[in-house]
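Q: My labmate handed me this sequence with no annotations at all. I'd like to see what the chain might look like in three dimensions before we decide whether it's worth expressing. Could you predict it?
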Amino acid sequence: MHLLEPLTDLLAPYKDVVGAACGLLTILQFFSGSLVCNDIRKKGSAAGFPLIPLLGLVVLCGISIPFGFQIRDDMTIKVNMIGFALGTIYCLIYYYYTPNEHKTKVWGQFGLGGAFTTAIIAYSQLEDPKVVEFRFGMIVTVLLLTMIASPLFDLPEIMRKKSTAGMPFPIIFSGTLCGLSWLAYGVCLNNDFMIIQNVVAVALSFIQLSLFVIYPSTPPAKETKKSAKKTN
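A: Here is what I predict for the chain of 232 residues:
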């Protein structure tokens, strides 16, 4: 990223400050799930709310903890232990408010998440230490970008209903700030991998934020009436 070298020279002296901000924003992002859970509590049901951002937090932090031990980075271990604990609580709340007819499906998703986490951790222990850091980083990157993009999986339904109801705005907004901070940190380090990773993450986040500008966060009156008639 030679074009960014002047910016790197400008930000390099503030590397420690930017790094500290990244850690703080990452932890704050973990707490954004509590706002989603509060919306679920107010509604009295998890129906219409995606599980992937909450379960993804558990999986992502779960595989990052042993990675932190491998690279001997206390901050990585501590931050991801906090995220893993909070994500587990969020998933339990989600399950509690899941309608009985959908609980089996949620259990299945929990099982897949657990199996994936176990498989990745096992791979990290068996793989050659010389290549595991890069490959592990790629796996984490793919998982992270999938989790960030997950609300877009319902894009056809969002466009049909012309509503962003159910999209986790607190997680998306905090994720955008977090991505911007890590992008700045990547520029400080002149790390191409980190820069590209977070440019994609921020782009996905901005696409989702634009949906909140285009569509309201509540269903149109017509859609609400149709849902009410179907319920009756």
